[in-house]
Automatic annotation (TrEMBL), chains A, B:
HAMAP family: PurK (MF_01928). Pfam families: ATP-grasp (PF02222), PurK_C (PF17769), RS_preATP-grasp-like (PF22660). Belongs to the PurK/PurT family. Keywords: ATP-binding, Ligase, Nucleotide-binding, Purine biosynthesis. Its EC number is 6.3.4.18. This is N5-carboxyaminoimidazole ribonucleotide synthase. Homodimer. It comes from the Bacteria. Pathway: Purine metabolism; IMP biosynthesis via de novo pathway; 5-amino-1-(5-phospho-D-ribosyl)imidazole-4-carboxylate from 5-amino-1-(5-phospho-D-ribosyl)imidazole (N5-CAIR route): step 1/2.
Length: 381, 381
């Protein structure tokens, strides 16, 4: 048999779910994980425990892999270059990944290809940030460290020049990107997958609802989205994937404005929370298509299997034991799809998600929210 | 976290796919496998290599498991008794499993509960088998060793009293069951899942088509099956599950006769080839429901997600390299679902299956057959 070995760097839930989706294809997985307790390390057979920031570890791991892909975007670019020099295909490659690692590089590239973005520029200090505000409509503005942020971390909304948070982003010693605070009506995400061959598929554009900067629910497809806007969002994501040379899954997080514009918020070059609904709601999941893309196999059909699919994230609550909540959740909704990550429960930590689908959006939303709330412990009946 | 550990005895593809379906639930799997190369051992993290026929091995393995279940039905009944005496829940339990291990015991029990069976009795030697034939409509008859058969092995169709095969079944030193050769119009399978709690669900009755005694395709639901007969088959399977105390998945293989009867052919107390279509065609797969049942969790919805789903087994051909066939199969049918088992290809060996679904049965059948044939190498375009 010549079934390939996919080397997955990082042991988080994205690696876990990618492994799950690779099993039916007979694809062999090899995992580089920080600890044996990591989400994916619990379920993968072939696990190497080590630090991806150490080049020797990474090189040893890559030996025997036919291709390397990632659970996260934090592997240093120079390490990726070294792997590529060793002859190991790295997907997405470093020329693409740099845009996901550095928001400054990402914005510059998006400007270059004419992708619509919030007004932005790199700012050097608090005074410069205030000047950036004055160049536009004033405060509030958003400041982001160009590297290292996720789920609202590394992002500050600054209300005025006197805001005590104004100086904070500059303390990390990382360049700071200033952006206008977009007055959006909602957040959308356009998920696409692209293969080295250049084949690409687009999932339906979804609506992503955040609570406290963390994704709470995703509705697929985005309700009441004008067809023209949906098409524009899909085309934009496909164009970004092509121009940035992305291989694998690309999530383009978007702001939809009241005046019918879409602006790129963030990019993620890996399976993404806004695509988790595809596990139960699409013909081919984002994880299966990511695997197919990194192996340069023909991509699977991204179309939805249900009229509506809703994903709700399960955050940790005060209760460490989520398993006991299964009884009620499963008995209440035999169609419920639970996806847990094997993580210890900590308040506010993403430990899983649920998917529901059906013809009636209100019902589908209610079932997802109920299950996520019951698992967290915020709903008790 | 109090997520349970499911101990799975046997490393075949059923264990592999059960593990796959347990990952989203956060269920921890521990596998007892003959070799590290076994189908499931390739993808499960926590694997013990050992012989399930050795009681000490089995006991050591069971320590730390919250429940034990099986990839196959070959674990000696006395070993199951020992595990139960150690306080480990075994599901299905020995009182149920004995019916799947011994076709003589199975037929006796089915007679007792009034389940319709082909005419049958245990026969002691070739003369007795000929007498059995004479008691009914004569030859042909079917002889089966009561233990150890599968996929046509351990089964002989005897055409006449002079048939040279008549003596063969008696050479194994295992009791021999004689059955009338049922003149069936087709084979059906009724798949049900039952929990210790007594909850049970029934999947739609499917048609199973055999080639050379091996399952070739399964069509869900069985085309043109009278609703009354479908209901009778589901009720029969549910009744057998209850009366035999089955926990987990039960497949009841049935003959449909020209005069509208259904007769029980075989029982399997584990996920079954006739239920593989549920992975992509039902709301909850047989594997996920088997896991839920052995953990006494509420069962998931068994209803179909598509009008038609077809499963076609992929047998090994002359070509050892099935992976290279992915390119054509995936490009031809982006909706195709491939399930490979990680097994070495040997001619005639089941190494995987494909699922297809849709509204047009002819199309769904053609796609499944094409993919299975192309993977095997019997179709080359």
């Amino acid at each position: 048999m010549t079934f390939p070995v996919v080397g997955m760097v990082g042991g988080g839930q994205l690696a876990r779910m990618t492994h799950e989706s690779g099993i039916p294809l007979g694809i062999k997985f090899k995992l580089l994980s920080d600890t044996p307790q990591d989400s994916a390390a619990q379920v993968v057979g072939d696990v190497v425990i080590g630090d991806y920031r150490d080049l020797d570890t990474l090189r040893d791991f890559a030996r025997g892999c036919d291709v390397i892909t990632f659970d996260h975007e934090h592997v240093p670019i120079e390490h990726l270059r070294a792997l590529e020099a060793d002859g190991i295909p790295v997907r997405p490659g470093r020329d693409a990944l740099v845009h996901a690692q550095d928001k400054g590089v990402m914005r510059a590239k998006l400007d270059e290809i004419g992708a619509p973005c919030p007004r932005h520029r790199i700012v050097g200090d608090p005074q410069d940030a205030a000047a950036f505000a004055a160049e536009g409509d004033g405060f509030p503005i958003v400041l982001k460290t160009v590297r290292g942020g996720y789920d609202g971390k590394g992002v500050w909304v600054i209300g005025s020049a006197e805001d005590p948070a104004l100086a904070q982003p500059f303390r990390a010693g990382v360049p700071v990107l200033a952006e206008e605070k977009v007055d959006f009506v909602r957040e959308l995400a356009a998920n696409v997958v692209r293969s080295p061959h250049g084949q690409a598929v687009a999932y339906p554009v979804v609506e992503s609802r955040q609570v406290d900067g963390v994704c709470d629910t995703v509705i697929a497809p985005a309700p009441d989205l004008a067809e023209e806007l949906a098409l524009r969002a899909e085309e934009l994501a496909l164009r970004i994937a092509k121009e940035l040379g992305v291989v694998g899954h690309l999530a383009v997080e978007l702001f939809e404005t009241a005046d019918g514009r879409i602006l790129v918020n963030e990019l993620a070059m890996r399976p993404h929370n806004s695509g988790h609904w595809t596990q139960d709601g699409a013909i081919t999941s984002q994880f299966a298509n990511h695997v197919r893309a990194v192996l340069d196999l023909p991509l699977g059909d991204p179309r939805p299997r249900a009229r509506w699919t809703v994903m709700a994230n399960v955050l940790g609550g005060d209760y460490p034991d989520m398993y006991s909540a299964y009884l009620h959740c499963m008995a209440r909704d035999p169609q419920l799809k639970i996806h847990m990550y094997g993580k210890d429960v900590k308040p506010g930590r993403k430990v899983g998600h649920v998917n529901t689908y059906g013809d009636d959006l209100d019902d589908v939303l209610e079932r997802a929210r109920h299950a996520a709330g019951y698992l967290r412990g915020t709903i008790t009946e």
